[in-house]
Amino acid sequence: MNISKHYTKEVLKDLLLDTFKSDMLIEPEHASDEVYYEALCRVTREILSEKYKIFNAHNNARAEKKVYYLCMEFLMGRSLKNSLYNLGIQDAMTAALEELEVDIEKMYALEPDAGLGNGGLGRLAACYLDAMATENLPAMGYSILYEYGIFKQRIIDGWQTETPDYWLPGGSVWLKKKPDRTVPIKFGGRIEEGWEGGHHWVNHVDYQTVYAVPHDMYVTGFQSEGIAVLRLWKAQSPGFDMEAFNRGDYVNSMGAASASEAISKVLYPNDNHAEGKMLRLKQQYFLTAASISDIVRRHLSLYGTLDNFGEKNAIQINDTHPALAIPELMRVLLDDCGYEWERAWDIVVRTFAYTNHTVMAEALEKWNEDIFRNLLPRIYQIVQEIDRRFCAELRDVYHYDPYDIDRMRVVYDFQVRMANLAVIASHSVNGVSKLHSQILRDSVFRDYYHLTPYKFKNVTNGIASRRWLYQSNPGLTKLLCDTIGDSWLTDMSHLKRFDKFSTDKAVLERLAAVKRENKERLSKYVLETSGVALDPDSVFDVQVKRLHEYKRQHLNALHILNEYFWLKDHPNAPFLPKTYIFGAKAAPGYFLAKQIIKFICTLRDVIEADPAVRGKLRIVFLENYSVTISELLMPASEISEQISLAGTEASGTGNMKLMLNGAITLGTLDGANVEIGERVGKDNILIFGMTAERAADLKAAGYNPAEYYNRDQRLRRAIDLLASGLAGQQFPTIANSLRYDDPYMVLADFDAYCGIQQEASRLYQDTTRWQEMSLHNIAASGYFCADRAIEEYAHDIWSL
Ligand SMILES: *Cc1c(COP(=O)(O)O)cnc(C)c1O
């Protein structure tokens, strides 16, 4: 069925009016915007739900292999606009609402972001649902229905404050509760075991049960039959603790409810940092046990046996957060279904594939053995047995020495090492950019690479390009359609065809006009939300991403401080007016990151208060950076700051969104920046600083930041001011960290960064040259579409 043909303006208007009559209990003419929003979302959700039934029946009838994407985070953002555009009914719906005197933009604005993720990793999962649906894959995402998503950030007096993100009042309209698919999950207790008739039996006793109740969200593909389901598990207590109740402990038996429901209460707000808390481990097991149970149930209902499980199911685990799915599937096969260990292990390895997202030590998950054993006694036994057999194999078959085995095993030094478990139990291990995958083979996983080289792969990340171009940048969409047609919407590689317009003056001028319009749109938002009037003639230089030392927002800020000094020293020198835009949430417990935000805001205020400099230099700190804010920001950006220490950013995806909208990458040879450079050519990207290899060598040789501090008077002046105080505010923690430790080598790259910033200003002033560069970036960005990445997963990893 062609949905966009079926759902005309008249049909949609009737559906809206029917929904009012049956569900909203109010006449449309008396309804508030909120009620209209609810009705509109319900109509849209029902269209998605009907489409899903058809798609799912078709897949089941053809016994298609299913793909499951397990992730603790899905940073979905808004759904309404995306759904209408992907269904191709945005114009008809706009017109239907117009007849009811409702402005669709107002409706879009009422939707809260589904912020069930921290940053890049969670957004990647969301982009992949979009692409899997578009590619017609029978795919499902699994995660947790956090009642509170990523906190809302406000900046008060330059300091980040967090407020809870209670998104469900406006967001739950997208969720369809499926109580009949509820799964009981067992925590704690003890294992009884023995032998009987040559068979080993285990019995889990004295455990506490928490129910996992699924709530489904639909993600439709673009101009395709496909729909991906995101199944989100909500924790529900069994009412009260039956065993405590039976012991006569009436009051405590009731108290158990809030403790178990805490599991899905809130998203842990750490990005690239493992906290090691028991509640987080509970969340991880809750997600994985519920999802494995659901996948096994579905498989059994289709095939009646698990013998072909590995042929009919691919489970991708996004980072190690859902890696407990591995021992959980072993448990189901061994304990519930009576498989022998070897046969069960074979099924598990065929099923699982693991995506690594970081090489930084503080982000690698290692669970304390005692916590692990007490919370998950049976899973612990299985992990121990995986470890025992793996060690035996290394020793007896491969003759590894004990030293090497200790490095590679799963349980060691009172810790359960989740990355080791994920590598050992998966048939595929992939990094998320060429450089990152190379680093995995060379360093973090080199032992495993020697043992099983065939497992190691790369899939460079991709983004939902249509969300950030077609839905967010109408001006550029129109320009592209006028020049190269619209086939790029379904095949982003066709953006290449835009390249030949790089010598067309009229097209370059239109491109500049589109950027100008988008800068004005952003300026209007900034004026309305913070009262600051931006100068759309200044260059918009943007660094938006989580606040983290490795991403080096402080390198950016140090350079701005240096420019400020320079302008004070050279009041009459020519200078390209610049607007530096930051957006970044810091993990609430990450003190240094919060200091860096305060530093940026203090510098902003110093500049704003100085009549000699304001007008030439401005800093904007956008509060609460989110998917929705990124959709407004990307089209207005001109310089894309991607300045992580080489070797630390696994891929980055913000770089791709910015490139797609014509921003020029100013960055290090890190993550996907390397591949962006390969595709646009070195004349269309601004690369600076150490390579990953050079940074690793320098670290190994003993990096001493004081050398740079002593040698470079710009650094001394800036860092001394941090220590002594900027507008009365001192930043000793930042200053000392840079001078005496500098783990991400900010000082070593500072000089090169200043150089490339100057080069950027020089190039920007040649307007034609800049627009050419911008055009080449747009034309080369097709590769970084999630559709391409998902095709690679489907072909290279899932064998679809
Ligand atoms: C894309 C995106 C990110 C990832 O940005 P990086 O620069 O790759 O770290 C983080 N947060 C949001 C809201 C995003 O949309």
TrEMBL record:
<protein>
    <recommendedName>
        <fullName>Alpha-1,4 glucan phosphorylase</fullName>
        <ecNumber>2.4.1.1</ecNumber>
    </recommendedName>
</protein>
<dbReference type="GO" id="GO:0008184">
    <property type="term" value="F:glycogen phosphorylase activity"/>
</dbReference>
<dbReference type="GO" id="GO:0030170">
    <property type="term" value="F:pyridoxal phosphate binding"/>
</dbReference>
<keyword id="KW-0808">Transferase</keyword>
<dbReference type="InterPro" id="IPR035090">
    <property type="entry name" value="Pyridoxal_P_attach_site"/>
</dbReference>
<keyword id="KW-0328">Glycosyltransferase</keyword>
<keyword id="KW-0119">Carbohydrate metabolism</keyword>
<dbReference type="Pfam" id="PF00343">
    <property type="entry name" value="Phosphorylase"/>
</dbReference>
<dbReference type="GO" id="GO:0005737">
    <property type="term" value="C:cytoplasm"/>
</dbReference>
<comment type="similarity">
    <text>Belongs to the glycogen phosphorylase family.</text>
</comment>
<comment type="function">
    <text>Phosphorylase is an important allosteric enzyme in carbohydrate metabolism. Enzymes from different sources differ in their regulatory mechanisms and in their natural substrates. However, all known phosphorylases share catalytic and structural properties.</text>
</comment>
<dbReference type="InterPro" id="IPR011833">
    <property type="entry name" value="Glycg_phsphrylas"/>
</dbReference>
<feature type="modified residue" description="N6-(pyridoxal phosphate)lysine">
    <location>
        <position position="657"/>
    </location>
</feature>
<comment type="function">
    <text>Allosteric enzyme that catalyzes the rate-limiting step in glycogen catabolism, the phosphorolytic cleavage of glycogen to produce glucose-1-phosphate, and plays a central role in maintaining cellular and organismal glucose homeostasis.</text>
</comment>
<keyword id="KW-0663">Pyridoxal phosphate</keyword>
<dbReference type="GO" id="GO:0005980">
    <property type="term" value="P:glycogen catabolic process"/>
</dbReference>
<dbReference type="InterPro" id="IPR000811">
    <property type="entry name" value="Glyco_trans_35"/>
</dbReference>
